[in-house]
Amino acid sequence: MTAARTLRSAAALAEVGLVAPERLAALEAVAARYAVAITPDMAELIDPANQSDPIGRQFLPSEAELLESPGEVADPIGDAAHSPVEGIVHRYPDRVLLKPTHTCAIYCRFCFRREVVGPGGAANLSPDQLDAAFAYIAAHPEIWEVIVTGGDPLVLSPRRLGDLGERLAAIDHVKVVRFHTRVPVVDPAAVTDEMVAALKASGKTVYVALHANHVRELTPAARAAIGRIIDGGIPMLSQTVLLKGVNDDPEALGALMRGFVESRIRPYYLHHGDHAPGTAHLRTTVAEGRALMRAIRGRFSGLCQPTYVLDIPDGHGKVPIGPDYLAVDGEVEDPNGGAHLYPPKG
Question: Taking a C-beta distance cutoff of 8 angstroms, is the pair 270, 242 a contact?
Fold first, then answer.
């Protein structure tokens, strides 16, 4: 059965055959703690007969989410410690996050903000809070870039997106505006020409960073939505989370990166999974991630190489953690594992 609406409960998932009825009680307990929403576009992609379906693993609730592992915390990357006013995170000197909404079109089971997004989570910014957030940005001339995130800012109406752009356009020292979103893949019909026009901020360079984790998310409809954004004059970057059973093998990750490049999206970050509560079943080890990056080097075009990053817990920032090829003893390793003297002897 195809979903005609966004599915927002375990019962709704069972109704369309995405979860077994006998799991309802357990999954309702999961949904009571962590928001559930699966758009029709993504529900259509899930194979309910395959318990390892990479789309299902991302969006279908699992009983494993109620099992917390050591080191998992509600705010794994320390947003709160770097939030000088509501809706702003100022972790790096030249840029801030602006979070006008904590609502998403779809809720990922590995989300590092899963304790605050969705119904029952943090409220959207009030007009007064939004004023205070913009006042903070205006008062800090070191802020060169504003990253609009959430939640997912593209769930906002074009009118509200346009208002954000106008207010950022009025702050001279802000030069770059970046929107982080999943909407072009999970609800591509929402990406209208009106929305694309609203994303622009006069006098600013605007980017859209798209979050996708498996090449099957890049459906023809999604690629068309991506095309509307890029053809509208807005370049796009990718963000991907390394997920066990989704993209943790070279072919799956390579196919996704090729899909981005084919769609005119520049591969940007591959995030190591954060220690959010109840996400251990989807998290790889750093060693596995480094081996994966080594495996796609040389096998896939240089255009298809994201930067593998770790967001250090407690708000200490992102660092690249990809494999090393240069040894301290003057040797460099090639993509096939061969060792070579460098600098070469004459």
Answer: yes
